[in-house]
Amino acid sequence: MQARYLYLTAMLPIIVADLWYNGILLLWTMKVSICIYIFLFGILPLVFRYSYQVQKKILFLNFVHWPLGLDLTKPENVRIEGARNFYLTTDEKVKIGAWQILPQSLLNQSIPKNEEVYEALLKSANRPVFLYMHGNSGNRASSHRVELYQLFQKLDFHLICFDYRSYGDSDNVDLSEMGVVNDSKFVLEWLIKTVNNSAPIFVWGHSLGTGVSSHVLALLASNGIQPTGLILESPFNNLADEITEHPFSQIFQHLPWFHWVIVQPLYDNGLRFESDKHIGKIQCPIMIIHAEDDNVVPFILGEKLFNAAKVLHKDSMQRIEFVKIDSSYGLGHKYICRYNNLPSIIRNFVNQSSEGQKYIHY
Questions:
Q1: Beta carbons of 294 and 234 less than 8 angstroms apart
Q2: pTM as predicted
Q3: pLDDT, tens digit, for every residue of 280-337?
Q4: Beta 158-162 vs 229-233: how paired, if at all?
Q5: Bridge pairing between strands 286-291 and 229-233
Q6: Three state DSSP letters for 181-217
Q7: Quick one: which of 135, 229, 237 has its CA closest to 180?
Q8: Cα 290 → chain centroid
Q9: What is the dihedral sign for C-alpha 198, 204, 347, 350?
Q10: Conformation bin of residue 61: beta by default, left when phi > 0, alpha when psi is -120 to 50
Q11: What is 210-240 written as a DSSP string?
């Protein structure tokens, strides 16, 4: 007993010191955790709410340049044959970088890569012409976009793709919803005038590009202008719901002020992309394509957009189509272009839409 007593007496200072150290460590950890929590859920949301520049950067992600160091004047660097790089200057004096990609049937011909020849091919096009509006981040040379261009080419379609302002090698000017919409509207109007009813024109929007294309077509519809068809790949119904449902937003969902801090500022600053309202004004056939395992724009938002279209077009629902891609294919947000049935889906939509309306009213 005495030996045990002496042992405990000797160990007591060590035990006390250890408890003291652990207490200090625990207190320090709690302080750090509280500071991190305040920073993540207090300071950062407030910075987002009161900084329009931060809101635009997070929404458009135009500062994400991929591939790095690519010369966009040379489409062949990303394995695209039969393409030329060119630029358009909008009514707002914004220079827009673009590519024109020829259909497969023209690749075996010796075609000079100059503006006059390529535009002449558009003016005399007897194959469908697609205008592609991309999503946020990257540029017109991003790999998943190139895969889709190559599919269009194999389907023997003409293609125009471009970068909005502040993307790629387009002019670095202030970004806004109306800015990218006006850029896209100008390009579509240029394409309509160039093709001049020689072929049907289709607009394809992906992700953020679905919000852009829907807005553009709604504006043109008010003037009696419409393409032959619109394809919306991985769309959201409106930006407020997309921000709310985005995986990155889930960590902030518990905040009682989430909507006021995160969602409302975007709406107040005109960043709305309300496709569920714009789609009611679009009179051409519309096809929505969405993968169930999309973890960027949740599948439920594509369904919401389709349901909105059903309400707004209840007397002409035969023009609205929804294509659901099972999650078992693992195509997610970017790689619907790899879906085996996509070529036949596109051909059927093009054929059915062209039968109903080959020409654009202008």
A1: yes
A2: 0.89
A3: 999 999 999 999 999 999 999 999 999 999 999 987 777 899 999 999 999 999 999 9
A4: unpaired
A5: parallel
A6: HHHHHHHHHHHHHHHCCCCCEEEEEECHHHHHHHHHH
A7: 135
A8: 13
A9: negative
A10: left
A11: HHHHHHHHHHHHTTT---SEEEEES--S-HH
- For residue 62, give every residue at least 6 positions away whose Cβ sits within 8 Å of its Cβ, in sequence order, or none: 136, 137, 166, 167, 175
DSSP secondary structure of 71-118: -TT-GGGGT--SEEEEEEE-TT--EEEEEEE--GGGTTS----SHHHH
DSSP 8-state symbol, 283? -
What are the residue numbers of the active site? 207, 294, 333
**What gap in Å lies between CA 62 and CA 74, rounded to an integer?**
21
Is residue 41 within 8 Å of 256, Cβ to Cβ?
no
Q: Contact at 8 Å (CB) between 130 and 100?
A: no
The span from the first CA to the last CA of the chain, in angstroms, equals 104
Cα gap 27→61, rounded to integer Å: 39
Tokens 């007593």 belong to residue: 5
Q: How many CB atoms lie within 10 A of CB 295?
A: 11
